[in-house]
Each structure stands twice: as structure tokens, then as C-alpha cells.
Amino acid sequence: MQRIFFLLLSIFFLNTQAQEKKLWAKSVINQKAPKLVVEKWLSEKPETKGKFVLIDFWATWCGPCKKAIPDLNSYQKEFKNDLVVIGISDEPEYKVTRMTHPKINYYSAIDTQKNIYNELEVNAIPHCILIDPKGIVRWEGYPLLKGHELTAQTIKTIISTYK
Does 8 reside within a domain? Predict the structure, then answer.
């Protein structure tokens, strides 16, 4: 009886490990992205027409969010001709501007009213969406999720597929 229990428990565990990517927001993959509405740009407002747009929902108190910033910086630099990276925080301006490490080298805005957060039902951060030039979401999720990470190769593939 004990062997059967452990066998069933093992099968359950293996099955849960092979499941699809976990999201902590409403899925909008291959759908029209929500309109980009922010309360205030902390950087200059980016020109997004004809570009892929990577939006990162983040906060200064979030360790994984801070861990993702160097990668986002590198994506902005590596794909500068095709991609605009935008970080959106729901915190007040003074909290975001007070954070100096890691340094953000991409576009930044605040949305304390959580307009896009609420539309996407984001309930955990960091959460990213990658939008193609036609306004369709081509990638979504937690950018550091093991087995489903957002990588330069992922971005390169999406750009070459949907450009």
C-alpha cells in the first residue's frame, strides 16, 4: 500500500513539473496588447511605432525585478534598432527615482493607478509582455521562470518571425 502511495505521489510530482508555463496574469498571448497608458514618463517618452515593445512590470522592492534589470538593459542595447524596452512601476515617482542600483538604461514610467496592471490582471512581478509592431502580444510571463526564461535568443526569434 505504501509503495502504491509513493508511486502515485511520484507520478503526480512528475506530471506537475511538465505542465505549461505558469502565469501570474491574464493571458493575452497572440491577442491585441492593451493601450500603453502611463501616469508619468520618468525618461523621455519612447517612439514605439514600427518597433517591438517589451514592457516590464516591476517594483523597487522586488528582488527578482532588480535581478532582471541587467538583462533588460542588454536587450535594449542589443536590439536597439527593433526593440523598445519599457519598465512600468506602480510605485510613486520618488521611490523609483531613488533607486540607483541596478541602473535602468531603458525607458521608464510610473502608473500608480495600475491601469495596464489591472487590464492584464498582473498579480505578481516581474511580469513582461513582448508586443510586435502590429500590436500583438508575442511573449508573456515571468521573465526568470525556469524553463520559460525570456532570453536574447527568444527575443531574436520573435523579431525574425514577426518583423
Answer: no
Domain count across the chain: 1
Contact, 55 vs 86, CB < 8 A?
yes
CA-closest candidate to residue 160, choices 133, 141, 127 = 133
The arithmetic mean of pLDDT across residues 135-162, rounded, is 89
Query: What residues contact residue 56 under an 8 Å CB cut-off, 6+ apart?
Result: 65, 68, 72, 85, 86, 87, 88, 126, 127, 128, 143
Peptide bond into 126 cis (omega under 30): yes
Tell me the CATH number at 73.
3.40.30.10
pTM: 0.85
Judge whether 150 lies within some domain: yes
Helices 63-78, 152-162: axis angle to 10 degrees equals 50
Give 5's DSSP letter.
H
